[in-house]
Design goal:
Elements (H helix, E strand, L loop, with lengths): L1 H20 L8 H21 L9 H32 L1 H16 L4 H22 L8 H5 L2
Helix pairs in contact: 1-2, 3-4, 4-5
């Protein structure tokens, strides 16, 4: 049941960004629409696959352990999402992408420091190059960054 609720929240969240991407300037609509539509499709497939979760029958103790494990994972995912959006609001999209992906790779997926740094750096540089250099569009810079301009 928890997975279904999370999937619905994810679908609504991604749908919100797809809807908002129509308000962007025409030169900036393409990338968010492509990424958003693909993510919306994958989240919908995940939701459909989780609808069959109630057909599995397991022992009560194994099921209780699995539910406790899933609840703790779900809490970590929501905490990561909340911190990512808080970082985006305060420091901007580019900085938030770097730090949230670094934290996700290092502590959630248990990657090495160097690999986490490289993945986060690529994820930081790619949107910067696409939007700032290629399209000449400034991304959200955050409240704290704007105070120092």
């Amino acid at each position: 049941m928890i997975e279904i609720i999370f999937d619905l929240i994810l679908i609504l969240f991604i749908g919100f960004f797809v809807y908002n991407s129509f308000s962007y300037p025409s030169q900036a609509q393409f990338t968010p629409l492509i990424v958003g539509v693909i993510a919306l499709f994958l989240a919908t497939l995940q939701f459909i696959s989780h609808l069959n979760i109630f057909t599995k029958v397991k022992g009560k103790s194994a099921m209780e352990k699995e539910i406790g494990y899933k609840k703790s994972k779900l809490f970590l995912i929501f905490a990561w999402l909340f911190l990512t959006f808080l970082l985006m609001y305060l420091f901007g999209i580019s900085i938030a992408i770097f730090f949230s992906l670094f934290w996700l790779e290092k502590y959630f997926f248990k990657e090495l420091w160097l690999r986490s740094f490289i993945i986060a750096s690529i994820a930081f540089g790619l949107p910067y190059f696409i939007f700032r250099i290629f399209f000449s569009i400034r991304l959200w810079e955050g409240l704290i960054v704007r105070m120092f301009e």
